[in-house]
Write a structure and sequence with these properties.
The protein is an alpha+beta fold and 145 residues long. The protein has two helices and six strands.
């Protein structure tokens, strides 16, 4: 049976991976404070999909946009340097003892903010409906013809 993975456990795993890799930096997951101090991260779950594969198996995909707000005067240089670190930090994320690989990683800088995109794909399965065999009493007669 596949381990139980939820949208929130993947999101928490991404935030934990960032906090382990960047222990002194603020990381926001729900909302970002009005007067935040840069540099900091904001982790946004963009989309989640759930596609049927085979039998009781489904493929889940979670797409994230990790925002990085640079603090220095050279925003682009600082943002591109952070992107290099994020390619390493989010390549493999530990979630409840299992390793999930970040895929489709790419980044862009918009309005002096780094947007680092990463997907986490995994399989889930639905519970098996157990059909138990019941006894069947069969009777028969033989006709002599």
């Amino acid at each position: 049976m596949l381990p139980e993975v939820t949208v929130n456990s993947i999101r928490d795993g991404v935030i934990l991976a960032l906090s382990n890799f960047f222990p002194t930096m603020d990381i926001f997951g729900e909302y970002i404070e009005q007067d935040f101090n840069a540099p900091c991260f904001y982790v946004k779950l963009l989309t989640t999909s759930h596609d049927h594969e085979l039998d009781r198996r489904y493929k889940r995909s979670n797409s994230f946009d990790v925002h990085f707000f640079p603090a220095g005067a050279d925003y682009n240089r600082e943002a591109h340097s952070m992107a290099e670190n994020l390619y390493v930090a989010l390549a493999k994320v530990n979630i409840d003892g299992a390793i999930y690989k970040g895929t489709k990683m790419n980044h862009e800088i918009v309005d002096n903010v780094l947007h680092f995109f990463v997907d986490f794909n995994f399989l889930v399965s639905t519970p098996k409906n157990e059909i138990k065999m019941q006894t069947l009493k069969q009777e028969g007669n033989v006709k002599n013809g």
